[in-house]
Amino acid sequence: MSDANKIYVMPEENLVEVKGLKTHFFTDEGVVKAVDGVDFVVPRGKTLGIVGESGSGKSITARSIVKLIDRPGRIVDGEVLVRRRDNSIDNVVDLPQNGESIRRLRGREISMIFQEPMASLSPVHKIGRQITEMVQLHMGLDKDAARARAIEMLKRVDMPKATQTVDSYTFELSGGMRQRAMIAMALSCDPNLVIADEPTTALDVTTQATIIDLLMDLQEQMGMSVIFITHDLGVIAEIAESVVVMYLGNVVERADVDSIFHDAKHPYTQALLRSIPKLGLEKTRRLSAIEGMVPHPFRRPRGCPFHDRCRSFMKGVCDELVPPIETIAPGRQVRCLLYSDVDKVRAEQAESARAASAAVEHSEVST
Amino acid sequence: MSSVDTQNTATPIGKEDVKPVLEVKNLKMYFPITKGLLRRRVGEVKAVDDVSFNVYEGEVFGVVGESGCGKTTTGRCITRVLKPTAGEIIYHDKRGDRVNLSDLSRSELRPYRREIRMIFQDPFSSLNPRLPVVDLIGEVLKVNRIATDAEIKERVKKLLRQVGLRPEYLERYPHAFSGGERQRIGVARALASEPRLVVADEAVSALDVSIQAQTINLLQDLQEEFNLTYIFVAHDLSVVEHICDRIGVMYVGKMVETGTKEEVFERPKHPYTEALMAAVPKPDPRLRSRGQRVRLPGEVADPSNPPSGCYFHPRCRYAQEICRTKAPSLQEHEVTPGHYSACHFAEELELKGVRPGEASASA
Questions:
Q1: Considering the domain A1-109+191-367 in this protein, what is its CATH number?
Q2: CA A129, A132, A138, A141 torsion-angle sign
Q3: Which pLDDT tens digit goes with each residue over A171-203?
Q4: Which residues of chain A have a pLDDT value below 50?
Q5: 3-state class (DSSP) for residue B90
Q6: How far apart, in whole angstroms, are the C-alpha atoms of residue B23 and residue B92?
Q7: Which of A264, A335, A317, A278 is nearest to A56 (CA)?
């Protein structure tokens, strides 16, 4: 990761490209491969949904994009290419952890919205102050202009009585209002990309619906891209254009939203869709649950991490070979051996295993 | 106090012979708001305000609503974790005797604590981290004198098997289990005393999608096996639709609509129910509803300072003058047999529910 001067290219319509991202956590008990091979692109002005159960690595993926990974975590491999405001392309992985360049990226060009507004808003500062601080820092506005910007943003997120709310503390607001304040803050510097990490999970359905509408309206007006992380397939169906399904640190399927819901390829995606109760569609008494549970990160199954819960399990294949990501159509990828040439994969993995063991020996000698 | 006419609640259609297990009549639970050193009482939060409903043997009664609507408080009153401010909670015990739980003292409640059990939402905070499974579940058996010390181990093993856990896990502590497994321990704890009525308070809300489906299936299997009656408190309408037979919708401490699942979901008669259902995201991108949905303006009313008349009127798009002045009564609006709606216009409004096959039709 030393090619700081390398020139990166990506198609004009893409804002972010993540390639082979691996973020591991080096704990005392062992290495947790929270993100272990993630690829996706975020086109400009579009919404990418990342869906997965807890422990699938979706939040760590998002945080890796702005390099918000604290020790013992580290991005160990891969590229996160981000198109900057001046149209230059940076690989975030190469930027110094807390250097000037990445700090200009965070908040200014890429901002985040979290599940729990109180975790990202300060309880001892007024809402307005928290927005103006950011605007002053990133946009260089003076105090009055920053305050005007804060009020403007609060109005934009339909905060009732914005001119008064700007002087309120977070505890004076309801959950939905806090979420609006956080969205106002996230959008105040006119970012290119908003990463929304389960932003509606803690909210009631009626509030969730208004917040989703709001985010989509704002996207239309301001043209930013959105990465929307959620475990709720209903929300994904509502908001995303393209979808990434994650399981145990891997992207198992990537497709446009319609294909995910109507032509899912990966057995995990299919199983997830079967297991959710659907309003107004219930015919069967029993839900088709996925057997077992997400394995503990230290007890990752050999081969395909989903094989022991999979209905399409192929003995001698899925429990031995790690499925590679296969492109089955433009923009459609699936990581499942059902769609791979098994013999070819077997040969390749035997070869790379030999190479890896040789490399380990070599590096042990050299260190 | 309002009228004590409480022959209001829906019976499961076609099952008129089914006996109620529980009759909740005009239940009120007010929490005082105090101020200053002397803790002067300056107001009260009407968490549950005059709620009545019946729960029949062998059914699943769902209580739905947004946070702060009083659904959890209702559940806690029924299990008598809380002592209600007013109202009756009449429980029909095994022998068919009626007993009003709301008046009973701690010691008088004891025999009923066995029969009415609770499953909690958070499997992480509801289990004592310092007790192994055998004690977590065995405690219930011991306290209720169901099993002798010698029998406890065997009983716990049997319970673990019933909820789908390996009996070898007997000596493990809660931290060694995943969220879904812990919730199963919670279910085993509830079942240990052979209850008749189980109040499941958001029992599957904290679980992952795949685990949620397993737990729902488990709860349904156990219900069949032990002829349980559930009160299923939840905010997730898709889950409620899947598991419940009858439903009560709550808004700011009031029951605004009750009826069978089919009635309430397909032909809602209260504008709040309509809005609530419209807000549920549908897992099909071809049904994207932005722009066409009913969106609720404003926020849930403050239960310590509710609006006049119908509590829902400031957010209701059908509101008229009478809604601002007069509170509608659930009992007075029986739209179809067993389907009640606390709305002045319950009989006139044409509201949109969820139609079965709505999604597949367009797919």
A1: 3.40.50.300
A2: negative
A3: 888 888 888 899 999 988 889 999 999 888 878
A4: 1-2
A5: strand
A6: 8
A7: A335
- Secondary structure in 3-state letters for A134-148: HHHHHHCCCHHHHHH
In a domain, B65, yes or no: yes
Q: How far apart are CA A188 and CA A129, in angstroms?
A: 12
> What's the pTM value of the predicted model, to 2 decimals?
0.85
Number of domains present in the structure of chain B: 1
**Whole-Å CA distances, B340 to B11, B74, B332:** 11, 19, 8
Which residue's structure tokens are 């009120």?
B28
pLDDT in tens, A219-233: 999 899 999 999 889
Does the residue B304 lie in any domain? yes
Q: How far apart are CA A258 and CA B60, in angstroms?
A: 35
Its domain, for residue B41, covers 20-125+196-355
Domain containing B217 — which CATH number?
Answer: 3.40.50.300
CB contact under 8 A, B281 and A234: yes
> Is residue B147 assigned to a domain?
no
- Dihedral sign for Cα A115, A75, A224, A40, please: negative
Minimum CA–CA partner of B217 in chain A? A286
Closest approach of B252 to chain A, Cα-based (Å): 14
- CB contact (8 A) between residue A261 and residue B217: no
Q: Is the CB of residue A54 less than 8 Å away from at least one CB of chain B?
A: yes
In a domain, B104, yes or no: yes
pLDDT in tens, A258-287: 999 999 999 999 999 988 887 766 556 678
Domain residue ranges in chain A: 1-109+191-367, 120-187
ipTM more than 0.90? no
Which positions in chain B touch A240 (Cβ < 8 Å)? 285
Q: Name which of B210, B266, B295 is nearest A53 (Cβ-Cβ).
A: B210
